[in-house]
Design a protein that fits this description.
heterotrimer; A mainly alpha; B mainly alpha; C alpha+beta; B: mainly alpha; MetI-like fold; 12 helices; 75% helix; C: alpha+beta; 6-stranded mixed β-sheet; 4-stranded mixed β-sheet; 17 helices; 18% strand
Chain lengths: 306, 326, 557
């Protein structure tokens, strides 16, 4: 088991390294000028800015310098788009917000998606199956930038206790989390349904039935655990993705999260911001994958021994 | 269909029953009424967008002609079945052409995704070992990249060449400018979506190829001295077709969604053409006052996503060999 | 699946019970949550606390008055800092005493003496002195190649300022800014500028605290300086910085050391970076904002119906136009440019699409004050067609590919679609639309990699030159490749004219020269459209939209 974890960690290191390298050269190949502004920037001013951020050096040197700065100074550098702010400050400000929002919507997604998936599997090809899957999929078939405004107009406005947007009151997290949770719920419902159908057709379930084990016990004791394995595998990457990929929801609900940094960083060619975020995201994803692996090992005795 | 396309563990049974795997699967698919409904809706929408739309266009209806004095005309009036939009354009035509563009982008991107994914994933899975592993780590690395970078990069790399090509078609072959431009500006977007879409497909194919490579029939082929290319393309790839087709069906709706998200950021299709994504985004801005401009494209869009998803799920259930045990 | 059938009865029962129970729990929990935390709306809370909540469009790029150039940054900086003169809350072009108690020009308007208020203090209690101003102008004009101020030309009105900034002279003592004593500032100008007090209201002329700036770096330490961060920032205006969290909010609170603290009525201002304007209007409707940054045109009919007089549509000195790349075929020909200009149905764009009370632009300078703009550009499809025929392009199919570059915004898209349809209808020419995200759009514009490019300009001060000087040959914001000696001669002539009406006449001639050649196609003159709650008092229409927050009050009727 220790060896599995170690090899996982090593793989994460390789992936993160590749990720940063790809991103670095890709974002430098992109068009656009990070210093362009509505008011003209003279060539001298531009040169000054490039020198200031070290962008006047050849690309391989910049690449090397970036790693050097990260490893020896633990520093991601300054943001170019948001002047005077460190990339690490931007991440440490927005990550707790995204983490809170992401965890809540993940919990909501799990508590909606997994029961729906189980119900759908138990009533395979019957009305309840269809109904459960329609509910589960409604969230991804109605895009977030329609769902969000509909919630704002029809729920937040009539209710005094819920605000349309913002991040001041504890209740402000509810609507963005609901909007986000549907995507997770839909995938989880599908995976759980598939896993459950798979398990229920296995021989050991049939023999358990033949021995007269009560149906409820079969589901909770024998079927549920292996049936949830695909869902757990999915949760790792989903967790990392929901934390960083909530741009639309952040934009609509005025949530100061991380997703908008990714979009702003890319569209404004803020090299430092993008690289810092990508490194952070890569590590986060590695941790999330490792966690879901550990849960899998815990759930499946076969994996524990091997 | 090639009847040799049978997963080995089912082979015996299938021959006994005398029905092909596909016929078997279709019987199972028919039992899933929601999937059948999905299939019918998919066909109906494809028909509307790709046949009805062009026919209406040929009859003189236009999706881009504006009438600023006649904005937001009601549906079911003299102004077309669905009325008009914020610039007085025929909403029916815009929805049909938008659907055509959304579906074209998604389908073309899926075809590209499948092709690249099969080749890359197939090779990685077949080779296996350290090299195959490295190939997959590269995929992981790319997969974690912000997809916006890939989208903007591909668009910038390709759009110049596409413009040249379009110019050539218009000047030398005398094709209609409107038509060429409408379809040529899909190409960069399609490439951009396929540029990151193939990664997931590559992973799925690799997993399937890796497990097939360990099977007896592949070893048999090896011991017969067949070339690697022959084993890969004649024996392994055909056997992966099932999961690949299923995943492709599920990829189409997710690509339609990607396109819509890109529209939200402003990286969607070039105006005055529109996709469902841009129509919905524009429509959502009138949520308080004019609901039809949102409602009509959104309903069609959601319906299509539902239909593709249920069809894909149904296909997976039907083709999954394990499900056929009873 | 046979085995499953037997499972179902029990599971059905179980399913129903648990589903009902779970739903019950959720409904109960939610209703408990929603009713128990039912309390005042954000606005009610803020009204009680005397805090104004403003939608401010986006996260500011920074708060250093010397290093920003945007409207939304200026909204915050105006609350934090104060210049020599202050905007009157109701009257355009009137200067009230700020840090300066009084100011006296010489007869030619080339030398101005400002007597500073000895009561003027920084928010840490230090005096604001004439030296702070000189230090600030020296900082803004720093010739250091590493100093990235983009707006230093706003100070070029000072004598020798441009020369110093460009490194032609190295001694700052030669620049026309001197501290005669602690509370007397003497400004010497490059020519007669009767409207100098108007200029000093602009944030580029604001003082920065020398002792704080130097504490966190050198005079020209730019972005790495932490002096504008919360906790460090010291300012001299009616308010001081309280909190600043990225993409979340900026809060300012009363500055206890402000010289005119009695006049200040608000206890604080909260700026929310609401990028999504649809959300902003919805927040306003849900009592979360006193004041919105704008109202998207799609929601204007809705706002009119629901909020009545709370919807304000006011004139604003700004113009929307298309730059034309005069170096590229077919726009090397002025007749083609003019034809494109005359084929724009400006009225339809204003009334049918924008609906914000915008006015068709017959020129580049919006009408204000004593300036009489030459009304040259007016929608005339017949004339447009004639001009096109005269231009020498036999048929429209002989036209090269033409594209219009615009941003990726919704409004940009709709406007471009309307223009595209108009040119097709009136000229028979196909124009393609290219939408690019902000930085790529700007780069293409600065590199002159476009045919037609949508853009706008907002006046920095109330004088036509703010709209005309950008069109000089190779001007940083020109980007059209156009240049004219006659035009520049008129500008130069006006610069040396002290008589106001004569000066305006000369400037009008300059604009006429520009419009005759049409390197830029005017579309409409901006308005500001926003929602404001009735309890916000002392907020009057202002052409520059630079409302002085010190006079704003919240009063329930």
């Amino acid at each position: 088991m220790l060896r599995t974890i170690l090899s996982r960690l090593l793989q994460t290191v390789v992936v993160v390294f590749l990720l940063v390298t790809f991103t670095f050269f890709a974002i430098h190949a992109m068009p656009g000028d990070p210093f362009a502004d509505a008011k003209a920037t003279s060539p001298e001013e531009k040169a000054a800015l490039e020198a200031y951020y070290g962008l006047d050096k050849p690309l391989p040197v910049q690449y090397f310098n970036w790693w050097k700065n990260v490893i020896s100074n633990n520093d991601f550098g300054d943001s170019i788009a948001m002047k005077g702010r460190k990339v690490s400050t931007l991440i440490s400000e927005s990550f707790p917000v995204s983490l809170k929002l992401g965890l809540l919507s993940l919990v909501m997604g799990i508590s909606l998606g997994i029961p729906l998936g189980i119900i759908a599997a138990l009533y395979h090809n019957q009305m309840l199956d269809y109904l459960a899957m329609i509910i589960a999929m409604a969230g991804i078939c109605v895009v977030a930038f329609v769902l969000g405004p509909i919630f704002q107009i029809n729920i937040a406005k009539p209710l005094t206790s819920l605000n349309v947007a913002g991040w001041d009151r504890p209740a402000d997290i509810i609507l963005p989390a609901i909007t986000l949770c549907f995507g997770v719920a839909a995938y989880l419902a599908r995976l759980t349904r598939g896993g459950m159908l798979d398990v229920l057709s296995q021989d050991y379930i049939r023999s358990a039935r033949a021995k007269g084990v009560p149906p409820l016990k079969i589901i909770t004791r024998h079927a549920l655990r292996p049936a949830l394995m695909p869902a757990v595998t999915f949760l790792g990457p989903a967790f990392a993705a929901i934390i960083t990929g909530s741009f639309v929801v952040e934009n609509i609900f005025l949530v100061p999260g991380m997703g908008q940094h990714f979009v702003l960083g890319v569209t404004s060619k803020d090299y430092n911001l993008v690289l810092g975020l990508v490194l952070f995201y890569g590590i986060l994803m590695g941790i999330a994958n490792l966690l879901s692996d550990l849960v899998l090992i815990f759930m499946d005795p076969k994996l524990r021994t091997s | 269909m090639n009847t040799s396309v049978q997963s080995p563990q089912n082979g015996v049974k299938v021959i006994e029953k005398g029905t092909s795997l596909w016929a078997d699967a279709f019987v199972r698919l028919k039992k899933n009424r929601l999937s059948m409904l999905g299939g019918i809706i998919v066909i109906a929408i494809l028909f509307a967008c790709f046949i009805l739309g062009p026919v209406l266009g040929w009859l003189g209806f236009s999706a881009t002609e504006q009438d600023l004095t006649n904005r937001f005309a009601n549906p079911l009036s003299d102004n077309g079945l669905f009325g008009t939009d914020q610039l007085g354009r025929d909403l029916l035509m815009r929805v049909l052409e938008g659907g055509q563009i959304s579906l074209l982008v998604a389908i073309m991107a899926t075809v590209m995704t499948v092709t690249i994914g099969i080749i890359y994933g197939g090779i990685a899975g077949y080779i296996g070992g350290r090299l195959g592993n490295v190939m997959m780590r590269i995929v992981d690395g790319l997969l974690a990249m912000p997809f916006l970078i890939i989208v903007i990069l591909f668009r910038e790399l390709i759009s110049g060449h596409v413009d040249e090509m379009a110019r050539f078609l218009i000047d030398s072959w005398g094709w209609s400018t409107d038509l060429v431009l409408r379809y040529s500006n899909l190409v960069p977007l399609t490439f951009a979506i396929a540029g990151f879409g193939w990664l997931t497909m590559g992973r799925i194919v690799r997993t399937a190829a890796a497990s097939l490579t360990k099977q007896e029939f592949v070893e048999a082929a090896r011991s017969l001295g067949l070339s690697h290319a022959r084993i890969l393309f004649r024996h392994i790839l055909p056997n992966m077709l099932g999961p690949v087709i299923i995943y492709a069906t599920l990829t189409i709706p997710s690509f339609i969604l990607y396109e819509a998200t890109l529209s939200f950021i402003g990286l969607g299709i070039e105006p005055p053409n529109s996709s469902w994504g841009t129509l919905i985004k524009e429509g959502a801005n009138y949520l308080e006052t004019e609901t039809t401009v949102l409602l009509i494209p959104a309903v069609l869009f959601s319906l299509t996503l539902f239909a593709f998803n249920f069809l894909g799920d149904g296909l997976r259930d039907a083709l999954d060999p394990k499900a056929s045990k009873d | 699946m046979i085995s499953l059938k037997k499972l179902i009865p029990l599971s059905q029962k179980m399913g129903h019970i648990s589903v009902v129970r779970i739903i019950g729990f959720i409904v109960f929990g939610l209703s408990f949550l929603l009713t128990s935390c039912r309390r005042q709306s954000n606005i009610e809370e803020a009204n009680d606390a005397g805090i104004l909540i403003i939608g401010n469009s986006n996260e500011p790029k920074g708060l250093d008055p010397h290093l920003v150039s945007g409207v939304l940054e200026s909204n915050i900086i105006r609350a934090l800092f104060e210049g020599l003169c202050v905007e009157d809350p109701a009257i355009d072009g009137k200067a009230l005493p700020g840090v300066a108690m009084k100011w006296t020009p010489n007869k030619e308007f080339t030398e101005w003496t400002f007597d500073l208020n000895p009561e003027a203090k920084w928010s840490d209690g230090e005096d604001v002195t004439a030296h702070d101003f000189v230090f600030s102008y020296k900082r803004m004009l720093s010739p250091d190649p590493n100093w990235p101020a983009q707006y230093s030309e706003m100070l070029y009105f000072l004598k020798n300022a441009q020369e110093y900034n460009k490194g032609k002279i190295t001694d700052f003592a030669q620049v026309g800014a001197k501290a005669v004593d602690k509370h007397t500032l003497l400004l010497t100008l490059r020519g007669p500028i009767p409207y100098l007090p108007e200029l000093t209201k602009h944030y580029t002329w604001y003082p920065v605290p020398e002792h704080i700036v130097l504490k966190h770096g050198k005079i020209n330490t730019a972005f790495s300086s932490q002096w504008t961060r919360p906790g460090n920032l010291v300012s001299n205006g009616p308010f001081q910085l309280k909190t600043w969290t990225t993409n979340h909010k900026i809060e300012v609170e009363r500055n206890p050391h402000y010289w005119d603290a009695e006049t200040v009525s608000l206890n604080g201002i909260r700026y929310l970076p609401v990028k999504n304007y649809y959300t902003e209007t919805r927040m306003y409707g849900d009592e979360q904002l006193h004041l919105t940054y704008t109202v998207p045109s799609e929601l204007i009919p809705f706002a009119k119906e629901n909020y009545g007089s709370q919807l304000r549509q006011e004139n604003y000195v700004g113009v929307r136009f298309l730059r034309v790349n005069t170096l590229r075929e077919p726009f090397t020909n002025p007749k083609v440019r003019r034809a494109f200009a005359l084929a724009i149905d400006q009225q339809a764009i204003c009334e049918k699409i924008l609906q914000g009370g915008q006015k068709p632009a017959s020129g580049i300078v919006p009408p204000f004050g004593e300036y009489k703009p030459p009304a040259i550009i007016q929608f005339d499809p017949v004339k447009a067609k004639e001009l096109l025929a005269e231009s020498g392009y036999e048929s429209t199919s002989a036209f090269p590919d033409i594209t219009i570059l615009t941003t990726d915004s919704e409004t940009g898209r709709r406007e471009a679609e309307a223009l595209q349809a108009m040119w097709k209808e009136h000229l028979g020419i196909n124009v393609r639309i290219i939408q690019r995200e902000w930085t790529t759009y700007l780069q293409k514009q600065y590199d002159a990699d476009y045919d037609l490019c949508a853009g706008g300009w907002i006046g920095d001060y109330l004088d036509p030159t703010t709209f005309l000087e950008m069109w000089i040959t190779d001007g940083g914001n020109n980007n059209t490749g156009w240049g004219s000696e006659t035009f520049e001669e008129y500008l130069h002539e006006a610069e040396n004219t002290a008589d106001v009406s004569q000066r305006m006449a000369t400037l009008a001639k300059a604009e006429e020269t520009l419009l005759d050649d049409t390197p830029v196609l005017p579309i409409y003159w901006y308005t500001t459209t926003y929602l404001i709650r009735p309890e916000v008092k002392n907020w009057h229409p202002l052409l520059l939209n630079n409302h002085p927050f010190k006079f704003v009050k919240i009063e329930k009727d």
